[in-house]
Amino acid sequence: MTERAFVALGSNLGDRAAHLDRARVALTLLPSTRLTAVSSVEETAPLGAMAQPPYLNQMVALDTLLAPEPLLAALHAIERAQGRVRGARWGARTIDLDLVRYGSRRIETASLTLPHPGIETRDFWRRELAELARALGEAA
Description:
Layout: E1 3-11, H1 16-28, E2 33-38, E3 42-44, E4 55-64, H2 68-81, E5 96-102, E6 107-108, E7 113-114, H3 123-136
């Protein structure tokens, strides 16, 4: 049975829109996964204290048979394929893919916390989740 996962996309280096486009295409190629809805793209200020360019952000909904940990691994593989190098926390990046929600699951492991704790502090994520809920005919 598929579960609905919400993935946040962000980019603030290079051709930000192209990075988001490539990430969305890569998400459609994941096994046993279907892209079901896409939010608007929004430009936001970077988080943290580092001086860096603004981000383009977007949220997508996926229906997937992949479990949370394999889905997270697939997201990290997409990031690496697009030139993401994990360095300083809150640093600039070509692409950032965050697993924000996975059905109604609550998970807390060394590598994954669901729902993502950033939901509480990122107004743009809440707006994007609400937009997707409307598009999917769900409660936010």
